[in-house]
């Protein structure tokens, strides 16, 4: 009789996987300076997208996975964490699709970028068009 407890993860195929940054994969090269800059820009863009889209009920972004060719739904914090992990470790996190997300609450990266660009353009147009003098309630009335 064996007195040791049975390992519930003994036959789990993912049991040996680690998501620690110190667990380096020798086949992966560190991020180049250009790749690091791209990730930093993505993090900055993500902040803008969340600030603009969060208040209208968008919970995050949907990204088509290159490995499994299925949509993956990421809330803002999870995506931010994944980008920070990529920045610090040079490799993406092991991932799996979100459990039962509501697709109506997620948009693509391209949609978020277009939305942000539209808001920026609208604000720029308003700044370029000063209010005409004599507007009701203005100083010329």
Could you walk me through the main structural features you see in this protein, from its secondary elements to its overall organization?
The structure is a single chain. The chain has 141 residues and is mainly alpha-helical. It is built from 3 helices and 3 strands, in the order H-E-E-H-E-H. The chain has a 3-stranded mixed β-sheet. The longest helix is centred in the N-terminal third of the chain and has 21 residues, at 33-53.
Keyword list:
about 140 residues, mainly alpha, 3 strands, single chain
Short description:
By secondary structure, the chain is mainly alpha-helical. It is built from three helices and three strands. It has a three-stranded mixed β-sheet.
Strand order of the largest sheet: 2-1-3
**Span of the ends, CA to CA:** 97 Å
Enumerate the spans where pLDDT stays under 50 for 5 or more consecutive residues. Answer: 13-24
Inertia-based shape: globular
Pfam family, one: DUF5319
InterPro entries: DUF5319 (IPR035165)
Region (Disordered): 1-31, 118-141
Protein name: DUF5319 domain-containing protein
